[in-house]
Amino acid sequence: xxxxxxxxxxxxxxxxxxxxxxxxxxxxxxxxxxxxxxxxxxxxxxxxxxxxxxxxxxxxxxxxxxxxxxxxxxxxxxxxxxxxxxxxxxxxxxxxxxxxxxxxxxxxxxxxxxxxxxxxxxxxxxxxxxxxxxxxxxxxxxxxxxxxxxxxxxxxxxxxxxxxxxxxxxxxxxxxxxxxxxxxxxxxxxxxxxxxxxxxxxxxxxxxxxxxxxxxxxxxxxxxxxxxxxxxxxxxxxxxxxxxxxxxxxxxxxxxxxxxxxxxxxxxxxxxxxxxxxxxxxxxxxxxxxxxxxxxxxxxxxxxxxxxxxxxxxxxxxxxxxxxxxxxxxxxxxxxxxxxxxxxxxxxxxxxxxxxxxxxxxxxxxxxxxxxxxxxxxxxxxxxxxxxxxxxxxxxxxxxxxxxxxxxxxxxxxxxxxxxxxxxxxxxxxxxxxxxxxxxxxxxxxxxxxxxxxxxxxxxxxxxxxxxxxxxxxxxxxxxxxxxxxxxxxxxxxxxxxxxxxxxxxxxxxxxxxxxxxxxxxxxxxxxxxxxxxxxxxxxxxxxxxxxxxxxxxxxxxxxxxxxxxxxxxxxxxxxxxxxxxxxxxxxxxxxxxxxxxxxxxxxxxxxxxxxxxxxxxxxxxxxxxxxxxxxxxxxxxxxxxxxxxxxxxxxxxxxxxxxxxxxxxxxxxxxxxxxxxxxxxx
Length: 683
Known about the structure:
The protein is mainly alpha-helical and 683 residues long. The chain has 4 domains: 1-279, no CATH class; 289-495 and 512-552, no CATH class; 565-618; 625-683, no CATH class. Helices cover 72% and strands 4% of the residues. Strands 1-2 form a two-stranded antiparallel ribbon. Strand 1 (57-67) and strand 2 form a beta hairpin. Helix 2 runs parallel beside helix 14 (332-359).
């Protein structure tokens, strides 16, 4: 049953990619949905058995490779952390498959799209069930490959090509650091197995190495490289620029990447590596700071975006920052709880946005939308549920996990924690603001697009609205239902997992009241201001606050440009990194090394050498017998020379060499223009 969870998506991919064109569209839909439904069913049984009954399942399948002390198996671990991800990945993937049947039905490459979705799911399941870091890395690279294939699914679009290349190149940065971490892990522990590492990691806490007369902890370096790998995959600030551009792919792809697969892989890496991270206080602080900065950065950037999908994409980036905050404060169960909750309302928002885009003939600019409340009432209700859950509205899914993250940050009572708390609270305000800005501009304001398109807008069919209904139900209730299971006092849910328990979670219950209420107040304030600003005119709002016209035109314009251009990250990268690399690559790598050294010493030099050599030998073909006789005589002397050199003695050979050199010198004196040994001795 455990392995069937992995094999059903693989069977779907192999069947559709090999025989899809022979079984027809109905056969494709039946096989894809049946395989994913069976995978969901098996994952639910795994969740019940492992999560509720406390079992821990290890399945060593077969030997992978055996190199001296390195003996790797295809081994699958099913602990609490794994079965949660199994359920989330398979459930969201099933709904995305179901949704795609209608959304992509007119695409000529429908078979390829569904098969890629199944392959994406399979690699993510390989990642979450891996029993060692090498197998983990296989799934890690697999989801990166599938994200490239799906973002670039419409490969005739130039922007899709650029977005896919940007995604895979930036992810290679994180992959490079992951490889460095793997090398250090094997150097230090001589194994990649999670269970062995978990058992012996405590004994390596104080192991260090000397570099430039300074001792560095090996655990600090390993955890630092793992953190950088997670930054690349989970799109934290610095390596985040690929995530909004990945919206060039079809909307079901965006839902799958943001809710259950690609970006959650980085968080899962941190959660799986807690037995290493816990021994580096420096890296825990760094993770916390990155999480707070990413939450604030992404929320302020999403505030000024006009693309419907990019606004939701930046909200994903911001919520991942909250998960990093929880991991940095050692509240790993809280981070997993937020990842679990976030998957449902983020999939709901993306699939709801897909219905809007589908109905408006692929229009994504919110400035050309509006008035869809009367035409898409069900979609409005579902997106409203997703938006208020994202904003942290009380007693919805996002409220339980997001607020507990902000509360548990403060238990350390130091400047770093309080600073990150302020950043996260401000991010909560901006998140609420742009969430309701999206609703107002899309559904409640006046329609600003084409009248012809407006009269053709309609709700989706059963395949579109059923996933929205299911996700809405989970968005409303799943946080309340599972709160005590994940983070309740006295819960035994995490006892068979590698997650380190945080014994200071109860400290958050005794924090001052204003710390508990500040994020909630900011969320409500963001909702109210968003509705006010975008329901009434911006000019009226500015006059209400006695802002002068010059202030509006200069300062607000510059603020808008700064945030709309994503804090100029893309411009800085292009100016300082991309253009510099291209210049250095052309002027030095290409001109000096490639065309200069490599070509002259390598292929071009070899060609020129043999061309000169063959031209020289062609001069021997003179047609005169005495020339050929001299060549035969000279060759015979060389053979005799090497024979005596090898068999008899060196003195005879040296005298023979002197005789030959004398003959050559004499001939060169009398015949300067001839490049070969001449025949003057025979004239």
